[in-house]
Write a structure and sequence with these properties.
About 50% of the residues lie in helices and about 15% in strands. The protein is of the alpha+beta class and about 950 residues long. Keywords: Membrane, Transmembrane, Transmembrane helix.
């Protein structure tokens, strides 16, 4: 006789248990999946946001400002590289040694700095020379080409007309029979200089008489890539520079490229000065936001390190002989150690500060919902446990050990949570492409293991013989509850106090995310939960006393159950408080940033409209004023740098020339208007100026301050920057005081006041047509839209929206799960009430009573926390990273928006109650009636 073998093994029983009621386990798996997805996707999305913001930050300055560059006037090192250069052989024989030294210096740099720097480039540019055509009339336009040497000329330009410059093997001054020096010019430069290919002119230097050299334009060229960063170093290489002072004839300057292998004769003349640049092009695509702090440190070290580019020493120059008479001879220094400078570190520091502000705001937004997410996961595990309780109690009654029960519960949790975590993590990586390390997967793994730990921990509560009522026997835990609540409130108070004391002096812009800043929102929410749980029973007791004398059954029973056996524990209270607080905080932050952005845009424009970028003629100025809708215009007649002599040294300041009356008419009534003292127009021994606060402080410390050799007197100062200059060091003078301070008044910017009701876009279009396509016309609204479209602005808007949506969903889910957990209590009560005539509407009312009082009180507490959070958290975050301004914006609390948020929270709670009350309560009541009847 064969032994009977049961097919109901432990695994089979677990599967049948799951199949009988899969909903709770599926819900648990979905929560883990979403948590894992969030844990992996959010850090990667933030990394992408930081990188996009960094790229935008670095796209602003010219490449020449970012590329680590060494500029020196010494003679570059001559010689071959012994194979270490990638230059053509003839060019490498001259420039190879310097390039090899630069390559070695780059290769010696640490990563990631080494990885973001390209191969070195070089350019030598000589002082301007005169190159007049033979038919030039006296007093006419002057042409001042600058001989330029680009070792990689053929990699930067292509020939348009004529030939490449031939090698120059002559001398300076040229000997009889020497071929002319050949050059190529960019086509626009050649056209501006009226220099035709094949034409020969005499290249003459005022500082080196007798060193004139016949120069022939062999051809014209065009850039292979006009956007190549090389051209930001080679100023005037593609387009001519046209300078005109007063009524003097214009002077046209441009780079004249010679054969890169045969430029050395120019260095044999001592008085022909030149400057050489050697730089490493920055590969912007290789820079990641995560590497910024390390790059900043490495750039700082690199900037303080001298790099050897040549042997140093001196070389003897050939004597300059003119008409058989030796004019002079001498020697020239050879480049040795040079220093590389770059604005890349400053730009990276700005981007890091911006990223720190973004991280701080996101940490404040995420910490609360993250705590609720954990609490909801605990509730979901409780729901799974309650659904599995009857079967597990049967196993316990039949002798199953607690260890076996723990293994059963943990096994089911792992079976659903581990695949869910893997799937969620993989989905997060697919959605977000940024690199944020393995931290997200660690969090996902924790979420995968937490349900197993939660379920296994509840196995000890399984008892088939005794069920403890939730409304009795809780007194023993009262002492520990008080201790915990006092600790929570104390921690929240201490953390809030520390955060408020710290302020912006150690703001996120300087310190980044810290645990205190991230923990304060959750601690305040927990403290509010403590107050809610302690305070809301007080009015409820009074209500129960009143309802006891009324004839309404549902209201009395609902209020009494809400007081005696409340479903509202910490988790649903926390969910409502955090949900409402996050929504309120998000609305306040959004209003603050929007208002701050609008204010910053208006301050940067300085008027209703600004047009800038080009020198404007008198006819154009008159045209601006005649545009329909324009009330007043005020040109900025000049903007130039000038030396300010203070404290025994000179510093560079920007001199702005305006007409005080015109500017006052344009800015009248504006909160960001410059306060222009009447003394600016009063003549005296010193020029009256309005100065920035830093310049005013320097001038105040100097007994006899001079601006470009003229005495100045500060009659007013301004703390914030002026919209007419990007520099912090500036002075503003009236046009009547500008004689001798600026050589000529050429307006390059005009601010405009519009008529009331005028359409800014229509006026801007009309002004653009007059100014030309190359001018920049902006209104505050246009600039505000640009600022809002920046990655940080768009990212903040998305984060705030996501925080509100996620918090609302978590709130609704927490309420639903709370009511599901409370079903057994309702199931025991409803049969009795049903026999007393309770209908379906009454059942829903009882469900609402379970959660309603708590929701109302918690929503009020959430609003309080949400309004308090901006004043606490934002005090340590530099919001100018979001507004684009220079001043921390004021916090804006919109009462209507706050009320709308509260209404939305209550609507979410009502919907959750409706869902929980409508799912299965009738079946639960029937089942409970049957259970009561059976025993």
């Amino acid at each position: 006789m064969s032994a009977h073998r049961s097919r109901l093994s432990g695994t089979a029983l677990s599967f049948r248990r799951f199949a009988a009621a899969p909903g709770p386990s599926i819900l648990l798996a979905m929560l883990v999946l979403v948590a894992a997805f969030t844990a992996t996707a959010v850090p990667r999305l933030i990394a992408t946001l930081h990188t996009d913001s960094l790229r935008q930050q670095l796209a602003g300055p010219a490449p020449a400002a970012l590329d680590p560059t060494a500029a020196f006037v010494e003679t570059p090192a001559f010689g071959d590289s012994a194979g270490a250069s990638t230059l053509p052989s003839d060019v490498g024989a001259v420039w190879g040694a310097q390039e090899a030294a630069a390559l070695a210096a780059r290769d010696a740099l640490p990563s990631p700095l080494r990885d973001v720097l390209g191969a070195p480039l070089a350019l030598t540019v000589f002082d301007p020379a005169s190159a007049l055509p033979a038919t030039a009339a006296a007093g006419g336009t002057t042409y001042s080409p600058q001989v330029a040497v680009d070792p990689r000329l053929h990699e930067h330009v292509e020939l348009v007309e004529g030939d490449w410059p031939a090698a120059f093997d002559g001398s300076l001054p040229p000997s009889d029979g020497d071929d002319p020096l050949e050059i190529v010019l960019a086509a626009p430069v050649a056209e501006a200089m009226a220099w035709q290919p094949g034409e020969t002119r005499m290249l003459a230097y005022d500082d080196a008489p007798g060193a004139d050299v016949p120069t022939r334009l062999s051809g014209t060229v065009a850039p292979l890539d006009a956007d190549d960063g090389f051209w930001s170093h080679a100023l005037n290489g593609l387009e001519p520079s046209i300078k005109q002072i007063g009524n003097a004839p214009p002077d046209i300057t441009g780079l004249a490229f010679v054969d890169p292998a045969s430029w050395t004769p120019f260095r044999t003349v001592e008085r022909i000065a030149a400057q050489t640049q050697v730089w490493f092009p920055v590969e912007l695509d290789e820079i990641r936001a995560a590497d910024s702090p390390e790059l900043i440190a490495q750039l700082s070290t690199f900037a303080s390190t001298a790099v050897v580019l040549g042997p140093g020493g001196w070389i003897e120059l050939d004597p300059l002989t003119v008409d058989g008479v030796e004019r002079w001879s001498g020697s020239a220094a050879v480049a040795d150690r040079v220093g590389f400078t770059s604005d890349l570190r400053t730009e990276l520091e700005t981007a890091v500060a911006e990223a720190a502000a973004v991280d701080a705001v996101l940490a404040a937004l995420v910490s609360g919902p993250a705590g609720v997410a954990v609490a909801v996961l605990v509730l979901a595990a409780r729901v799974v446990f309650e659904r599995r309780r009857p079967g597990l109690e049967l196993e316990a009654a039949r002798g199953a050990s607690t260890g076996r029960l723990r293994t059963t519960l943990a096994g089911e949790a792992l079976a659903v949570s581990v695949p869910a975590a893997l799937l969620g993590g993989a989905a997060g990586m697919l959605v977000a492409t940024g690199d944020a390390g393995a931290g997200g997967w660690i969090v996902a793994a924790i979420f995968a293991l937490v349900p197993a730990a939660l379920l296994a921990g509840q196995a000890g509560a399984l008892s088939p013989l005794r069920r403890q009522r939730s409304d009795l026997g809780a007194g023993g835990a009262g002492r520990f509850r008080w201790i915990g609540e006092v600790l929570v409130v104390a921690l929240a108070a201490v953390a809030l106090g520390l955060l408020l004391q710290r302020g912006l002096s150690t703001a996120a812009a300087a310190t980044g995310i810290d645990p205190l800043l991230a923990a304060v929102p959750l601690l305040l929410a927990l403290a509010a939960c403590v107050l809610v749980l302690r305070l809301y029973p007080l009015p409820l007791r009074s209500l129960v006393a009143r309802l006891r004398r009324s004839r309404g059954l549902v209201s009395f029973v609902g209020a009494a159950r809400a007081l005696r056996d409340p479903a509202a524990g910490l988790v649903p209270v926390l969910a409502v408080v955090v949900g409402v607080a996050v929504a309120t905080f998000s609305s306040v932050l959004l209003a603050t940033v929007e208002t701050g952005t609008s204010t910053a845009a208006a301050a940067r424009i300085g008027a209703d409209l600004r047009v800038s970028g080009l020198p404007f003629t008198t006819e154009q100025l008159d045209g601006f004023a005649a545009v329909d809708g324009v009330a007043a215009t005020a040109p900025v007649y000049a903007s130039r740098t000038a030396p300010l002599a203070v404290d025994g040294h000179k510093e560079s300041v920007t001199v702005l020339v305006v007409d005080v009356a015109e500017l006052e008419a344009v800015q009248a009534g504006r909160p960001d208007a410059l306060e222009l003292p009447a003394a600016l127009t009063e003549s005296g021994s010193a020029i009256p100026v309005l100065a920035s606060s830093s310049v005013a402080a320097d001038i105040a410390a100097e007994p006899d301050p001079e601006l470009d050799g003229r005495p100045v007197e500060v009659v007013g100062s301004r703390e914030t920057p002026t919209p007419f200059s990007d520099r912090d060091a500036w002075v503003l003078v009236d046009r009547s005081q500008a004689d001798g301070l600026v050589p000529t008044l050429v307006p390059r910017a005009v601010v405009v006041r519009l008529e009331p009701g005028a359409d800014p876009d229509a006026v801007a279009a009309a002004v653009q047509e007059i100014a030309g396509v190359d001018a920049i016309v902006q209104t505050p609204g246009m600039l505000e839209a640009e600022l809002a479209e920046r990655p940080v602005g768009a990212g903040l808007a998305f984060a705030l929206t996501a925080a509100i949506v996620v918090s609302s969903l978590l709130t609704a889910l927490a309420i639903v799960l709370t009511l599901i957990v409370g079903r057994p209590g309702r199931a025991a009560l409803l049969p009795l009430l049903t026999t007393l005539g309770l209908g379906r509407r009454g059942e829903r009312a009882l469900v609402a009573w379970e959660i309603g009082p708590m929701t109302i009180v918690a929503a009020v507490a959430g609003i309080g926390v949400g309004v308090l959070l901006p004043f606490a958290v934002l005090a340590g975050i530099d919001l100018t990273a979001f507004t684009g301004g220079d001043v921390q914006p004021a916090i804006i609390v919109d009462p209507l928006l706050v009320v709308a948020v509260a209404g939305g929270a209550l609507a979410v709670a009502a919907l959750a109650v409706a869902i929980a009350g409508g799912v299965g309560d009738r079946q639960d009541a029937a089942r409970a009636m049957r259970k009561e009847t059976e025993g």
